[in-house]
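Q: Here's a chain of 299 amino acids. Please give me its 3D structure as tokens.
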Amino acid sequence: MRLAITHETRYRYSPQVQTAQHVAHLQPANTPCQEVLSHGMQIAPEATVRHHIDAFCNHRAYWALTHPHDGLVVRAHSELDTRTVPTANASQSWEAVREHFRYRGGQPGDVHSGFVFGSHHAPVHEAFLAYAQSSFTPGRPLMQAAQELTARMHRDFRYETASTDINTPALQALQDRRGVCQDFAHILLACLRSLGLPARYVSGYLLTEPPSGQPRLVGSDASHAWASVYLPELASHACLGWLDLDPTNDRTGLASPGLDYVRLAVGRDFADVSPLRGVLQGGGEHQLEVAVTVAPMAP
């Protein structure tokens, strides 16, 4: 599937910001499930942008604004093709995977071990362990257990816009059984890590279809978030061992939940892959507007 994505962020500052430094994760990477055809980013006020690859192999852009300004506009546009990878089944039990990542002195580690530990937005806690436990019965394959946990979260939790923000703890969202995709991804991560399993946060986009008979509205889409768990048994498979899990929509898949998904960046949680963040000197109140459009293109 060929998709065009436009992600526009607008800030208005009052009073003016004197200087600022910004970091953005807005450029998709080539993955087993997607090929980036083009990408561009425009910034106002104009700035010199430096591009890097971060510790998680994401594209990261950095720029500094050294003069007073009362607003910031960042517009990123990408075109890419999405595709599927061959299906595969993993029978390794979740306990075997947990043992694979258990630390042993003098033994070689696994490059994905960093995803086992709790993080700020997805901590290890007994409450997450208790919620996940009924899906992770003794000897059950990790792939099957993770898919069931994803489906159970989809049934148990209510998607409620504006019910939380990035500062809402995952424990509170678990207790309230409501939130947005970001909350659900963090809860799923925390459940998997509390079991001793490696899991990562995925930011990206999802193609949304308008109601029948209604036109697609420019800017009406939103960024999306989900989680993925690592299956060592499939490390040599095209998916590179990652099973993607989207509890918001009860969608799972190797390397991607589907052709209508676009991966932007991966990390331990949202803090690693925030689309845009910065440090400002001066300023006071600010207004934020974000518009995302994900549209299908003719091949």
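Q: Can you summarize the key feature?
A: The first strand starts at residue 2 and ends at 24.
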